[in-house]
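cache lookup: miss for this entity combination. No prior model stored, computing from scratch. Input as submitted by user K.M.:
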Amino acid sequence: MPPDPLIDVRNLSKSYRVHKRPPGLGAALRSVLSRKYELVKAVEDLSFQIGEGERVGFLGPNGAGKTTTLKVLAGLLHPTSGAVRVGSYVPQDRDPRFLQLITLVMGQKQQLLWDLPPSETYAMNRAIYDIPRAQADETVRALVELLEIGDLVNKPTRQLSLGERMKCELVAALLHRPRVLFLDEPTIGLDVSMQAKMRDFIRDYNLRYGAAVLLTSHYMDDVVALCPRVVVIDHGRLIYDGDLQALARRVRPDKRLTVRLSRAVERADLEKLGTVVSADAAHAVLSVPPARLQAVVRDALAALPIVDLTIEEAPLEEVMRELFGARAKAAQAKDAQAKDAQAQETQAKEPETKAAQAQAQAKEEQEKATQAASGARDETRAHE
Amino acid sequence: MTATTPPVPARPGLGSEIGRAAKAFPTLLRIGVSEVVAYRAEFLVWILTTNMPLVMLAIWHAVAADGPVGRFDQRAFTAYYLGVLAVRLLTSNWAVWQLSMEIRDGTLSAKLLRPIHPILALAAEHLSAVPMRAAVISPVVAIMLYSGWDRLLRHDSVLLVILLASLVGAWLLIFFSMVLMGSLAFFAESALGIFELWLGVHAIFSGYLVPLEALPHWVRGAANVLPFRFMLGFPVETLVGLLGRHDALMALAAQWGYVALFGLAALWVWRVGLRTFSAYGG
């Protein structure tokens, strides 16, 4: 935990009351008279802290509660329980000084005035945030230069491409020089080169102003490039908080050995060295346990026509897939166990039921599936 | 939070927030005017849809051809309905539609992130449409001046001051009532349905369709205690000389009482509603 956290989330829970209605006219009419609501727990007992100047990736599958958490941190949503502080403020109080401290950029939403040029949004923000004109002009000039959008700020927003709009959006969001950046999918829909520019820009802003960054993104390249630390949640609960590389090593310890070949080789020759991830005439990618890495490299150099060789961690996408896959399996096994226990109860008189067998099987399956995830939890505790 | 957590700094006073908003207001108004100009075609079409007073004028003009209805002859009807058109265009706004839509689709989020009260920003946005509307209604006002000149404001400068205050009051009353009903979208999906109902009652008790004087005694009695007359009928009655100083001052006091009441109610519903805001999609 940072000594003096800028963002402090303790035991945060947020639930929504959602109206449930099956499809069809009959259900629609019935819902007029009697409505059924379901309580959806978006975030459960979540705690983490972020210090000044930190860049943290906030990861999880769809519906994990990332955006809900960001909205609570930005003061848009009131927590159901728990406590949140950003700086010395409670976000949901929406103190103007707190709003001056933060920004929330959502890749799919915009604050730019649609029919007016972005420069008008900047003028509006300058007035609302009460920024001295000289400072605002200087900030706009610096940001416009960094993002290379000189001529765009005077074109109506509706005439800009998605990437151009996103850059202009960032200028509007950063005009008041916030110390805390909540970035929700800031590179969504952008092409590869634009994504890279955005990443450079965010890192540059972080270094220049010492701003804390909490980033969600489904592009793992964003996370790898920007965030030494990640907070991972699933079903609203914290499952990992710590170093990104350590997470990768824990969940996917095998190293990724990539070789460039001067000529094609037999697949069988590759399989002798490790698990073949992909292979063609000129390249091969092998997955190798760390303990065997040295020996495999030596053997590969001796046996294969290698032009170039690199050793990397497994890609973060795979790490995440494995982590969440293991958890999903565990959850399924738990569900099956619960169902079977119920079935067993109804057939309680039978000495040995199929349900009991299935339960035992499910338990075994669950134990196996949670092994990968438990490693991640250990890492979280170590970090704390 | 644990005992080591530093205390939350005291929130700046309301005066500080209003001062800050007042500083930003000129820029917000300027940008609002730019937006209205950008949406000029849509804006003009919207204005042209407010044609009911002209329809009612045609009907009552024909009725008064056989003789005056109470104090209304043909010229008085012309002045009244053109007055209704002018006051309606000057004071109405679209806050209820905007607010309920922004709450439901979550776009309110972007406004909640700014260090200015969203209702103040909304007021600036809607006020900035007034100059353009004033320009559009100037021919209507010219005809009305010609038709009703002999009775206009009873040629009394005090009534002119009361009229100006009543126009401000009507704008605020309509704005706050719209914010109040728009904020119901925090709790109910049918906030606009409630507003449609409100509009139906408004049409009768505000003097929008028929001058209140021409309605049965009990309707007039009800109109005097309901808020609708103070949104439209009262300024128009003052404008076309139907009210003397005393009656106009009494009505002005009642109008501003309603402004305070609706203002407080709107802010309360807003504040309570914000706690339930789900920010879906935003």
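stored under new cache key. Chain B touches chain A at residues 1, 5-9, 11-12, 17, 20, 23-24, 26-28, 31, 34-35, 38-39, 106-107, 109-110, 112-116, 121, 275, 277-279, 282 (CB under 8 Å).
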